[in-house]
Amino acid sequence: MATAAQTPRFTHPAARGACPFAPPPAYQQAQQEEPISRISLWDGAPSWLVTRHEDIKAVLSDARFSSDATRSGFPFVSAGARQLGTGQLTFLRMDDPEHARLRRMLTGEFMIKKVEALRPEVQRIADELLDAMTDGRSSGDLVREFALPLPSLVICLLLGVPYQDHDFFQECGRVLLSREATVEEVRGAQDRLVDYLIKLTDAKRTEPDDGILSRLVARGELSTEEIGAMGRLLLVAGHETTANMTALSVLALLQNPDQLAHLRAHPESVAGAVEELLRYLTIVHSGLTRVAAEDVTVGGVRIRAGEGVICMVSAANRDEQQFPGGDGLDLSRDARRHLAFGFGVHQCLGQPLARLELQIALNTILRRLPELRLAVPFEEVRFRGEMLIYGVHELPLAW
Q1: pLDDT by residue (tens digit) across 164-210?
Q2: φ/ψ (deg, to 5) at 364
Q3: Residue 128 CB neighbours (<10 A)
Q4: Which pLDDT tens digit goes with each residue over 212-221?
C-alpha cells in the first residue's frame, strides 16, 4: 500500500491559471502525479485532496467518509465556510440515517416527472424575462436580467416564498457563499435568512399554500426552526447554482463559436449539451468535503480516521481516463458520467430542476438572440473566484 507524502503539496484553494473555465493547474498536475495528495488549508490544517474520477466516486459512495461537519478533522475552505457548515445544520451536513430521513421529505418534490410538469411555466418565465431584457434595447447584463431571476422566480414559486423579497435573500446568499466573508458576516446572514423563513413558515400554519414550506408544515414532523433551516438551503442553492451555471454556459459557448453553432443548428441536442457544459464548467470549484470516520484505503493510499478529504470534482470531470480531450468543450460528447452534481447518497437533490432550467434557458437565449455576442472584451469579464459557487459577477451582452 502506497503512502502519499505528508508534506503539503500546496495550499487549497490553489491559484487559478490562464483559462478561467479550467480548474487551477495545481489540481490537474496533482491528478497526473499524485492523485491523492496531502495539502494545507487556509488555516494551516492538513487535508487530503482527491482529483481522480474513480477515486472520488469511491470516496463519495463510501459511508466511512462522513459528511458531518461537526466531526473533528472535517475540512473547511474558509472560516466563513466553517460557520456555514456548522452554524445551522441541514441534511447536507449529516450522515444516514438522519440525512436519509430528512432528505426523503423532499425527494418527491424534485422527481423528474414532477419537475417536467413545470416546463411550460419555466418556459413562460424565461420568455417574459427575455421580453423585458430586449425591449427597446440591444445590450444588457445577462446575470442581473435573466440568469439570476429565472431560477429565483422558480424556486420562490416552489417554496412559496414571495419573489418581491429576492434582493434580501440574494444578498444573504452572496454572503453565505463568499470565501472572503467573516464568521460574523456569515452568522449574521444565516440568522437573518432563517429568521425570515421562520416567520414565513409560521404564517403558513394559518394561511397555507401549495409550496414546499407549507407541505413540510403539514407533515408535522419538523419544528419551525428545522423547516427554516431546510428552506434556507433550498432557497440559496436553488438560485445561486443555476444562475451561475447559466451565465457561465453562455460565456463558454460564445468563446467556442463552433460549439455555439452546433447547438443553434441542433436545439434538440440541448439535454446532452447541458451535460457537457456541466462537466466542462463544474461550478463547485472548491470541491466536495468529507472526513474519514475510520481508516480507509483509497487508490492505494491509507487515509486515517479524523483526516479531512476534499474531492475536487472539477479536476475529475477533466480526467483524461474518463473524458479524453476533457480540457476542450465538445457538445457531442457523452458526458453523463460527470460528477458536477456529486455522487452517492448526497448527490444534488435538485438536479432534475437544474437540468430543466438550463435546457430552457440556453435554447430560449439562442433561439431568440441570433446575433448574441459579448459587449466587452473577454478579459474584462469578472469571474467569481472568491465564491464557493463559481461563475461571473455580470455578463454584458449585445444582440
Answers
A1: 999 999 999 999 999 999 999 999 999 999 999 999 999 999 999 99
A2: -70, -45
A3: 13
A4: 999 999 999 9
- Residues 313/280, Cβ–Cβ less than 8 Å: no
Predicted TM-score (pTM) of the model is: 0.95
Measured at the CA of 152, the angle between CA 115 and CA 165, to 5 degrees, comes to 135
- Give the domain CATH number at 273: 1.10.630.10
Domain of residue 381 covers 25-398
Distance CA 306, CA 308 (A): 7
User: Contact 281/259 with Cβ under 8 angstroms?
Assistant: no
Q: Which of 169, 317, 316, 343 is nearest to 239 (CA)?
A: 169
Q: Residue 367: how many CA atoms within 13 Å on its side-chain side?
A: 15
Amino acid at 296: V
Number of domains observed in the structure of the chain: 1
Query: Is 242 a member of any domain?
Result: yes
Is the bond into 208 cis (omega within 30 degrees of 0)?
A: no
What is the enclosing helix (H) or strand (E) of 296? strand 296-298
